[in-house]
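FYI - complex with FE2/S2 (inorganic) cluster, inputs then prediction.
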Amino acid sequence: MQNAPYEAQVEEGKEYWYCACGKSKTQPWCDGSHAGSGVEPISFVAEKTETVWLCGCRMSETLPFCDGSHNEL
Ligand code: FES
């Protein structure tokens, strides 16, 4: 995890799996490291091809997207 968002390019209509546990070695994407932790990745389908900012601190109220919560830490 990090105290800043992850910049990521996404493609319209494609499904993505955001790491919610913080253990993945391929941040911000799930790599299966959550197994046995009780935490599951968060999936989303990109509404359009664009750059998105994904939460790095896991404190966002709009996971998987950054809401600026890292600025309060
Ligand atoms: S590795 Fe973190 S949710 Fe899958």
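The beta strands are 6-10, 15-18, 42-45, 50-54. The chain has a mean pLDDT of 96.
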